Automatic annotation (TrEMBL):
Its cofactor is pyridoxal 5'-phosphate. InterPro entries: Aminotrans_IV (IPR001544), Aminotransferase-like (IPR036038), BCAT-like_C (IPR043132), Class-IV_PLP-Dep_Aminotrnsfr (IPR050571). One of its GO terms (biological process) is folic acid biosynthetic process. Belongs to the class-IV pyridoxal-phosphate-dependent aminotransferase family. Involved in the biosynthesis of p-aminobenzoate (PABA), a precursor of tetrahydrofolate. Converts 4-amino-4-deoxychorismate into 4-aminobenzoate (PABA) and pyruvate. Keywords: Folate biosynthesis, Pyridoxal phosphate. Its EC number is 2.6.1.42, 4.1.3.38. This is Aminodeoxychorismate lyase. It catalyses: 4-amino-4-deoxychorismate = 4-aminobenzoate + pyruvate + H(+); L-leucine + 2-oxoglutarate = 4-methyl-2-oxopentanoate + L-glutamate; L-isoleucine + 2-oxoglutarate = (S)-3-methyl-2-oxopentanoate + L-glutamate; L-valine + 2-oxoglutarate = 3-methyl-2-oxobutanoate + L-glutamate. Transmembrane segments: none annotated.
Length: 131
């Protein structure tokens, strides 16, 4: 899986994108090449089930913070169409922390309410551990 991620990331960068979206063998969203994927639809936070990809630490922290904020969260199989019809999409990872996705293909995601709440909570949690 690591080799696929590296090659996909390089190809995405070469084509002018920031990252690549990876699908599993059943065409469900798995993750990005160097980050985990989240989406918000109708106020509910969704992320792919951690099957066949790295269940990252930042992903786990994000789910914990979402719970603390009282957000409804679901780990589920996500289709590309599900993702493209989401209200918000963001990536999580050590380098990304929590990073909003502006667009996938030609679909834009201008809403960032929940993403911004989680980013703020993540920064606060990080500051607590640094001090």
């Amino acid at each position: 899986m690591y080799a696929i991620s590296v090659l996909s990331h390089r190809e995405a960068i070469a084509k002018g994108f920031d990252d690549a979206l990876l699908l599993d063998h059943q065409e469900f969203v798995a993750d990005a090449s160097v980050a985990n994927v989240f989406m918000v639809k109708n106020g509910t936070l969704h992320t792919p089930k951690p099957i066949g990809f790295l269940n990252g630490i930042t992903r786990k922290v994000t789910l914990s913070l979402a719970s603390e904020l009282g957000l409804d969260t679901r780990e589920a199989y996500i289709t590309l169409n599900d993702l493209l019809t989401a209200d918000e999409v963001f990536l999580t990872g050590t380098a990304y922390e929590i990073c909003p996705v502006k667009s996938v293909g030609g679909t834009s995601f201008p809403a960032r309410d929940i993403t911004d709440k989680l980013r703020q909570a993540y920064r606060q949690a990080t500051l607590v551990h640094l001090n």
